[in-house]
Amino acid sequence: MFLSTTISQNPRLAEYAVHLHQRGTIRPNTYVLDLDTISENAAKLAETARKNGMKLYMMTKQVGRNPEVAQAVADSIPSAVAVDPWEALHLAKAGIPLGHVGHLVQIPSSMVEAILDYHPEVITVFSLEKAREISEAARARHYRQDLLLKVTGEEDYVYEGQWGGFREKEWISAAREIEALPGVRIAGVTAFPCLLYDGKEIVPTPNFETLIRAKRTLEEGLNRPLDQINAPSATSCASLSLLKSMGATHGEPGHALTGTTPLHQHPGQPEQPAIVYISEISHREGDVAYAYGGGHYRRSRMRLAMIGRNLEEMMNRKVPLMELAPEAIDYTIGLHVGKMPVEVGETVLFAFRTQIFVTRSEVAVVSGLHSGRPEIKGIYNHLGESLS
Question: Quick one: signal sequence residues (predicted)?
């Protein structure tokens, strides 16, 4: 999906990644992240948000909860949104302030106290029961925790596995009951996804309309303004003005940090590509060669790969991928090589939209590519734990 864009806009990343694999420094099934470009992307996002009067939380799940990356991004976007409480604890222990926890995954009952010990800015709740748990834990710590209500409407678009939230008919009654709890305060509302790419541009979803409708309803019902209207999904420099015009106060860039939102398959975006995936030819059967898998993400829309032992050679050796059935485990990735001569051990280079935290991959963080002094800063597993 991003192979051509990455090669044209960040060839040094591709070149160095191939070099590292051929030298044996990194193994197949490794994502290589360009730390300097990620930092520059974060700075661009922060500046665009400042101009639009908005605040951002960094999302790190797509880069495998990587603490090295999070610390670099924090220079521009200080606090993080955690997709689940395990990510929240991992980032907090690495010194990253927690901005938003509980969305898309609620905090399990046994983990509420551990999360509150790190004083997140806001916690999203889907139910009265979860709000009560947080209230009790916050009261025991003698402070009040700000909450976001996840709101849903009848026409909203919801990904499978992401169900839950307050239905429109219960917004007011639930809010009033939560407001009466001693240890919490409703700071705002959130929904997901609020923006999506329609094949041409980033556009609002019905969920965004639900979010703004909930804001108005709750502000009238509670007789006070809400502090935060959090509208995640597809947050990038290109979408921040749209978020602002629709009434959002907060965005949550994730793929924009690596230049891999769907919009970034087209050149001209402020954020530059900062991630590639490296594998290796394992074996061949007829017109199909197989590369080691482990990092395939079903929604990646991978189409092409490049094969060879250096980037110059690989430019003329692009091949299409075999489609992998949804129920299959990606032990290998099939490549339609035809009659092309292919050797075991050759590097295979990919660039696509991913979520590293759901893979079995390793992650190499590199810096100095654009100053002529490239180096590996660290090698991690898919959950941000150091391997080197």
Answer: none
C-beta neighbour count of 220 within 10 angstroms: 10
CA distance 268 to 261: 13
Q: What is the DSSP letter of 237?
A: T
The Cα 123–Cα 277 span in angstroms is 33
Cα separation, 146 vs 135, whole angstroms: 10
Using alpha carbons only, what angle is made at residue 323 by residues 320 and 84, rounded to the nearest 5 degrees? 115
How many whole angstroms separate alpha carbon 137 and alpha carbon 133? 6
Q: Are strands 275-285 and 30-34 parallel, antiparallel or unpaired?
A: antiparallel
- Partners of 367 in the beta sheet? 375
Mean residue pLDDT of the chain comes to 97
Please give the single-letter amino acid code of residue 87: E
Distance CA 295, CA 307 (A): 17
What are the structure tokens assigned to 179, written together?
A: 């407001």
| CA atoms of 100 and 103, how far apart (whole Å) | 8
Query: What secondary structure does DSSP assign to 161-216, as a single string?
Result: T----EEGGGHHHHHHHHHTSTTEEEEEEE-S--EEE-SSSEEE-HHHHHHHHHHH
Q: pTM for this one?
A: 0.97
Separation in Å, CA 26 to CA 187, 201, 333, 359, 377: 45, 37, 18, 17, 12
Yes or no: say if 294 and 330 are a contact pair by the CB < 8 Å rule.
yes
Q: Which range among 8-22, 173-187, 248-262, 295-309 shows the weakest confidence by mean pLDDT?
A: 295-309
pLDDT digits (tens, 9 = 90+) for 179-217: 999 999 999 999 999 999 998 899 999 999 999 999 999
Helix (H) or strand (E) holding 85: helix 85-93
Place of tokens 């990904």: 159
Per the CB < 8 A criterion, the answer to whether 64 and 361 are in contact is yes
Position 347, amino acid = T
pLDDT digits (tens, 9 = 90+) for 343-374: 999 999 999 999 999 999 999 999 999 999 99
